[in-house]
Amino acid sequence: MDPRTLVDTAVAIGKEAAELVQRVRRTAVTDVDTKSTATDVVTAADRASEQLVRSRLATLRPGEHVLGEEEGGEVVSGLTWVVDPIDGTVNYLYGFPFYAISIAAQLDGESIAGAVIEPVTGRVWTAARGHGAFLDGRRLRASGASELSLSLLGYGFSYRPERRQRQADALAAMSTRVRDIRRAGAASLDLCAVAAGWLDAYAEHNLGRWDWAAGALIAAEAGAVVKLPGQAPELGADATFAAAPGIAGDLFDALVESGFGKV
Ligand code: LIP
User: Fold this and answer.
1) What CATH number corresponds to the domain at position 86?
2) What are 28-86's pLDDT values in tens digits?
3) What is the 1 CA–ligand 1 centroid distance (Å)?
4) Atom of ligand 1 nearest to the CA of 210
5) Nearest ligand 1 atom to alpha carbon 86
6) Residues 130 and 181 in one domain
7) What is the pLDDT of residues 166-206, one digit of tens each?
8) Ligand 1: which atom is nearest the Cα of residue 46?
């Protein structure tokens, strides 16, 4: 199968979901439940978006498996669609304009096609394995950063308070090792930002497969060094890491020294 065809499907469905979540936002943010903690929220729009994506995939790609943040599923051998119906749900709830629909196609658990669609800006981020990464059709390249002390690092926190404290301690140790730190709240877009050179690197723990499935492929296809959960135990078993190649090694070492692997 040509992964570019899968990208086209992901973009078409993602755009429909993006229109939906914007259209319903005023009422959707009054229908909110919580998941792992009181701050881990899911809105009626998250659910409606995933239902739309699942319905459209059933029509366009009948019989193919779907793993979604809200309705679950599993990664199977062969093709699995991995869906985050709103990545950055807290941002969506507050109206902080940094959230996205993330849809990836994985073959035997590895991303081969991905699309991240921003409802607020309309930006469309895509990648097909071996064919590059794009923002609205323009080719993406990770930054040429070569000095860790001049690099801009994206980061993210767990919803669990006890883990947030450990993460904050590690981040404090990192704060003098880099230019500055950004915490934007949507992993898929943090990974896209690395692909575009808007961030020089990004790291976070405890992401769902749906959070990174599309954005990690986009970052890798843009030339970033990417480590998925389980690929860098020194950073923690559930760490996701993406960095411009010129700083990847130094950043990796600095994160280990800062205790990132023990948060
Ligand atoms: C979010 C991630 C973000 C992370 C949040 C949350 P969600 O995904 O995109 O990077 O810090 O805790 O996991 O829950 O909005 O789909």
Assistant:
1) 3.30.540.10
2) 888 888 888 888 888 999 999 999 999 999 999 999 999 999 999 999 999 999 999 99
3) 31
4) 16
5) 16
6) no
7) 999 999 999 999 999 999 999 999 999 999 999 999 999 99
8) 16
Say if residues 190 and 205 touch (Cβ distance below 8 Å). Answer: no
Ligand 1, atom 5: closest residue by C-alpha = 185
- Give the residue among 109, 132, 100 at the shortest CA–CA distance from 14: 100
Domain count, the chain: 2
Contact (Cβ atoms closer than 8 angstroms) between residue 160 and residue 263: no
Name the residue at shortest CA distance from atom 10 of ligand 1: 187
Instruction: Give residue 88 CA to ligand 1 midpoint distance, Å.
Output: 5
Q: Which domain holds residue 184?
A: 148-262
Nearest residue to 117 via CA among 134, 140, 139, 141: 134
Spell out which residues line ligand 1, taking CB within 6 angstroms.
69, 84, 87-89, 156-157, 159, 185-187, 204, 211
Q: Which amino acid is at 218?
A: I
3-state helix, strand, coil split of the chain in percent (to 5) is 40, 25, 35
Mutation test residue for ligand 1: of 163, 183, 207, 240, the one with most atoms within 8 Å of CB: 207
Query: Is the Cβ–Cβ distance between 190 and 204 less than 8 Å?
Result: yes
Structure tokens at 63: 């019989």
Task: Point out the domain boundary residue: 139, 169, 184.
Answer: 139
Q: Which two tokens stand for residue 37?
A: 């903690």
